[in-house]
Amino acid sequence: MSVLFALTIACYVASSLGYQGYVLFQKRPVYRVSRIVLWVGFLCHTGVIALRYFEAGHVPVQCLHETLFTFAWTVVGVFLILQIRFNLMVLGALVAPLATLCVVIASILPGPPVELDPLLKGLWRTFHVGTLIVGNAAFAIAFLVGILYLIQERAIKDKKRGFFFRRLPSLKLLDSMGYSCLIVGFPMLTFGIITGIIYAQMVHGRFWNWDPKEVFAGITWLVFAALLHERLTVGWQGRRAAIMTIVGFVILLFTFFLRFLG
Asked: What confidence tens digit (pLDDT) does each residue in 223-235 have?
């Protein structure tokens, strides 16, 4: 496992550097190599998660160390799937470093306790945490896309065909990918919250405890629900959607760490 772990980090670092090189020099061969290396890193990452699952008997999401490691894997996986449709090449320059950072931080943090409460090994909790992580990964990519959108919009408004204008895709493509991330992330977040409520009833005897983590999870859901509603009914797009996506992800990030630090 240690070899696969080292290969994962090495591939993510190399891919990050490659994507940065592509953004700087705009050489397609550099992009292609970076994408292949990212795929190799993702496969190694998958191998590590699979081994940990078979060793521990549960999905590795029981502590911050495991959750960050699995989150990084999910972010890369969602990104590679979305790339098939959108081929948003410059986005790798943000996604690969994000995955690298999460994996490196995870490697520094202490691992989970040896023994795990049998209640935490249940399939229902696996669905709960798994869907939340997929939703979080989709929103993380939407957050990065939102940042790129605001940067490109600023470049266009300034009427200067500078560094970012020539390297970032059209606003329409960025907005479309951000919307696709929302369509993927929101159902996963919704299902994760619902399964979490049912799980709380099974374990604690109550559906809702007004715990700060639960409250902020509800606020996060409301923000993204409002964003999706506005996009579907009012036709929100562009700058407003990008800003609201960024705000929603910041709240989501706070909720994520509150679960472990609260």
From this structure: 999 998 888 888 7
The CA distances from residue 13 to 7, 40, 84, in Å, are 10, 12, 22
Read off φ and ψ for residue 206, nearest 5 degrees: -140, 140
Spell 78-99 as b/e; 16+ CB within 10 A means b.
bbeebbeebebbbbbbbbbbbb
255 vs 245, which has greater pLDDT? Answer: 245
Strand, helix or coil for residue 169: coil
Q: Does residue 92 sit in the same domain as residue 19?
A: yes
Quote the CA–CA distance of 167 and 165 in Å, as a whole number: 6
Domain end among 101, 117, 133: 117
**Structural domain that includes position 111:** 1-117
Lowest mean pLDDT among 1-5, 31-35, 56-60, 161-165: 161-165
pLDDT in tens, 9-26: 999 999 999 999 988 888
Residues 126, 112 share a domain? no
pTM: 0.89
Which of 241, 129, 243, 143 has the alpha carbon at shortest distance from 191?
Answer: 129
Asked if 194 contacts 151 with a C-beta cutoff of 8 angstroms, the reply is no
How far is residue 200's CA from residue 208's CA, in Å, rounded to a whole number?
7
